[in-house]
Specification:
Layout lengths: L3 E5 L7 H15 L3 E7 L6 H4 L2 E4 L8 H12 L3 E3 L3 H9 L1 H5 L4 E2 L4 H8 L1 H8 L8 E4 L2 H10 L7 E5 L9 E3 L5 H7 L6 E2 L1 H8 L7 E5 L5 E9 L2 E14 L2 E7 L3 H14 L3 E9 L5 E7 L7 H5 L4 H9 L14 E3 L5 E3 L5 E3 L1
Parallel strand pairs: 1-2, 1-4, 2-3, 4-5, 8-9
Antiparallel strand pairs: 6-10, 7-8, 7-10, 11-12, 11-14, 12-13, 13-16, 14-15, 17-18
Helix pairs in contact: 1-13, 4-6
């Protein structure tokens, strides 16, 4: 079996360690060698110590970003290129042919699918008629924001908003009428997403604001769905409940064979048209229906939960990109993943110890 040489970005992402381990476990089980060349915009990231080589690269929005990746490809000759950093995906996908000219297969969906999924307003508009999304409004200014909040039932109901374009929870806020600033100060960590309408008015007053999507706040169970697709056809679909979330990251997750979510995810994915790994997020409404919240056309940071249950989606995407047959996968449903902190120690002479 052919050895794999892979270039990745996002070496400092919280989930990078789990993805690197998944690659190596899969390669070991297949009896092949894998070399991981990592890159990140921060030269101090931990991922450089867990991979074979590391390169500092510009931010994904930089005009030099793609050229730097191409430079690394010319030097290192990887078989595959994969990213799990949202601001980088579209630039890489749009330049797919430039990487392919160097013999590098890009393990991402095509740019048309990525463009759709990155526009949350577009996604909500596409799937409103199917009943897959929460009640929402799209607004462009403070007056429209206030009107949308009111029409969604505030102050009797809690509402939330986020930018049409955004990632990592940036700009997401939950507006509650009974928010207690004293409780926020002493009982919530500084990264709390709760706020009041009065505070939002002060922030937005006399300022241009990005286009926002305002929606009902759903307090039911939350799920992430890890998917592997082959040219628009779902191969593996695995929902997992986000049991315990800290700073937007799942610390405890439970795999659940939830047929409603599986069917909704596969229907949505086929309409947009994806390839390789993607993930979706759902929340349950008061009527106990799963509602689509986000689509990320990339590996999820907690995809390692599926790996631990027997479905090594990161490695299977590499096999797919190499043109290899995907074996039958038996998911160990109801597996629970629990996360904990771990450290790397780098000595002055750049040697490192990982315990």
């Amino acid at each position: 079996m052919q050895d794999i040489r892979i270039l990745t970005t996002g070496a400092g992402a919280p989930g990078a360690n789990g993805i690197f381990k998944s690659f190596r476990i899969g390669a070991k089980n297949d009896g092949r060698k894998i070399e991981i060349i990592a890159s990140d915009m921060d030269e101090n990231v931990y991922g450089f110590q867990l991979t074979d080589k590391g390169y500092k690269i510009p931010r994904g929005e930089s005009p030099d970003f793609v050229d730097k990746l191409l430079e690394i490809c010319k030097k290192e000759s990887p078989n595959l290129l994969i990213s799990w950093v949202t601001p980088e995906l579209l630039s890489i996908a749009k330049n797919r042919s430039r990487f392919e000219e160097l013999g590098v297969n890009v393990v991402l969906s095509y740019s048309s699918s990525i463009e759709i999924s990155e526009n949350k307003g577009k996604i909500y508009e596409m799937f409103k008629e199917f009943g897959y999304v929460p009640d929402y409004r799209i607004v462009n200014n403070l007056e429209e924001l206030k009107s949308a909040i009111s029409s969604l039932g505030y102050p009797g109901k809690t509402v939330c908003f986020k930018p049409i374009y955004g990632h990592g929870g940036r700009g997401f806020r939950i507006i509650k009428s009974d928010i207690n600033r004293m409780d926020l100060l002493f009982k919530e960590k500084p990264n709390s997403v709760f706020t009041s309408l009065e505070e939002i008015k002060k922030i937005f007053e006399n300022r241009d604001i990005p286009k926002l999507i305002v929606m009902e706040y759903l307090e039911g169970k939350e799920y992430t769905v890890d998917m592997l697709l082959n040219k628009n056809e779902p191969v593996i679909t695995i929902p997992r409940e986000r049991v315990l979330i800290k700073m937007g990251i799942s610390n405890v997750a439970k795999l659940e064979k939830n047929q409603d979510i599986i069917e909704a995810s596969e229907a949505i994915a086929k309409i947009i048209g994806f390839n390789y790994n993607i993930n979706m997020q759902f929340l349950y409404s008061p009527g106990q229906k799963p509602k689509l919240i986000e689509i990320q056309p990339r590996l999820a940071g907690t995809v390692v939960a599926s790996v631990g249950a027997g479905a090594n989606l990161p490695y299977l995407s590499l096999k797919m990109a190499m043109g290899e047959e995907i074996p039958e996968v038996n998911v160990n449903w109801n597996t629970v993943m629990k996360r904990f902190w771990e450290e790397i120690y780098v000595t002055e002479d750049k040697k490192w110890i990982f315990r």
